[in-house]
Amino acid sequence: MLSLRPVFGASRAVLADRRCGRPGDMYFVNWPAWCQAHYCAEVRARDPIRGWLDREAADKGVARLSELLPAALRGAPREPLLAGSGAGFVLTLALREQDRIVGALSLVRDAGHGDFDERDRGLALALLPLLEMAYHGVIARGAATVPLCAGNDPLRALTPRERDVAALAAAGHSNKSIARLLATSPWTIKNQMRAVLQKAGVQNRTELSALWNARSGEPR
User: Which residue intervals define the domain HTH luxR-type in the entry (predicted)?
Assistant: First the structure.
């Protein structure tokens, strides 16, 4: 998928497996873990691309996210997933098997690079048969990335104590405050926080908080 970057200027992608006739596993390329978790927990159920795939994709084959949004939201990305991650615009290709849509490839262009245009749409339509062949090959071999939406939660790698530290950090506590609450030293908490960020695949407490809150309603 990343080999399409020189053609479309896309730096990220999402591959959705819909072989059962409904949204299934999703494979994220170049997305931070907190963005993946936020999408699965907060955005996926109301994603306009999913509705398009269910209703109109069989006739059109390719669509831009900006076309699927209500008129009031066009012109600038209002979805927190896009705005918070630096992504700006999405071009989605419906992947078929015979007469049935079995997958979708969404190419994501960074904010500030401009929306996908008619040239991009034409190229996507021309490449669609090749992308469908590639998709079937990837699925047949088993996707290289574990689908986060199928239950791969990066927070499950945390130890019980690291989970306590993560919960308090996500709630806004400083290292000193966490150390006091857990009856340990700030130095110990600093080391545990470093381990938490590394295991969760996030860069800072803000991303950790977004990831933690996105998963807070799910069983661990």
Answer: 151-216
